[in-house]
């Protein structure tokens, strides 16, 4: 209230005195603010530069993989993991390597690649996809129970068709044919009529034992 009863001259003089008394603090505050702004801008520039470098490396990896230059692809992927482990491009390369390893029958290498991808992926949807790929490889090793547990840990809304199909595969391997049938039917409900994988799911469903011969 005391400040409100001062006239304009007194108010101006009071402000000037306050500014003189606190000039150093104000200057320091401005300097810190400018440093923070400059530092933030520099950080953003470094982030953009880093992401650009990672993108270029991933493009080189993809080109090497497509050209079947496996040694080059491995070296580039290793560089991505070393220099840009937190980048989605390193994760994408690891997923591609895992798929290539599966195609070669090297499930141990695929599991190692997927472990790296799972550890470094940040996007929730991408982590769900990785979990399903881990489940597929785990099932291929013969551990249907572990694969099913991994699938059940994925949110129901993420990749529902793929998750249901894999769940059906695991349940069928465990001899739980009624549950497998329900899972495959759920997968078909999630797939469009023209979806490429629909015929495969339908075939898996048809290969299950008839209902009357299922185990209780």
What percent of residues are in strands?
A: under 5%
Contiguous runs where pLDDT drops below 50 for at least 5 residues:
1-6, 212-216
Total of helices:
10
| Total domain count | 2
SSE-based structural type? mainly alpha
Distance between the termini: 84 Å
Question: Could you explain the architecture of this structure?
Answer:
The chain is mainly alpha-helical. It folds into two domains: 31-122, no CATH class; 144-216. Helix content is 77%, strand content 0%. The protein is built from ten helices and no strands. The chain has helices at 8-21, 23-66, 70-83, 88-103, 107-120, 124-140, 144-152, 160-173, 177-190, 198-207. Helix 2 packs antiparallel against helix 3, helix 2 (23-66) packs parallel to helix 4 (88-103) and helix 5 (107-120) packs antiparallel against helix 6. The radius of gyration is 29 Å and the shape is elongated. The model is unreliable at 1-6 and 212-216 (pLDDT under 50).
Name the descriptors:
10 helices; 77% helix; disordered N terminus; 216 residues; mainly alpha; elongated
Task: Provide a compact summary of the structure.
By secondary structure, the protein is mainly α. It contains 10 helices and no strands.
């Amino acid at each position: 209230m005391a400040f409100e009863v001062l006239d304009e001259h007194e108010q101006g003089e009071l402000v000037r005195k306050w500014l003189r008394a606190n000039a150093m603090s104000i200057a320091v505050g401005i300097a810190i603010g400018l440093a923070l702004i400059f530092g933030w801008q520099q950080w953003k520039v470094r982030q953009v530069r880093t992401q650009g470098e990672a993108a270029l490396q991933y493009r080189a990896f993809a080109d090497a993989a497509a050209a079947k230059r496996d040694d080059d692809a491995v070296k580039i992927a290793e560089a991505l993991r070393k220099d840009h482990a937190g980048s989605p491009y390193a994760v994408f390369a690891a997923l591609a390597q895992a798929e290539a390893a599966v195609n070669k029958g090297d499930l141990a290498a695929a599991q190692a690649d997927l472990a790296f991808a799972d550890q470094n992926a940040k996007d929730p949807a991408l982590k769900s996809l990785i979990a399903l790929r881990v489940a597929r490889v785990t099932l291929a090793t013969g551990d249907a129970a572990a694969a099913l547990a991994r699938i059940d840990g994925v949110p129901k809304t993420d990749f529902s068709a793929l998750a249901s199909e894999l769940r059906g595969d695991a349940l069928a391997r465990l001899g739980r044919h009624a549950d497998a049938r329900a899972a495959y039917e759920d997968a078909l409900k999630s797939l469009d009529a023209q979806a490429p994988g629909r015929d495969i799911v339908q075939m898996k469903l048809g290969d299950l034992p008839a209902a009357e011969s299922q185990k209780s």
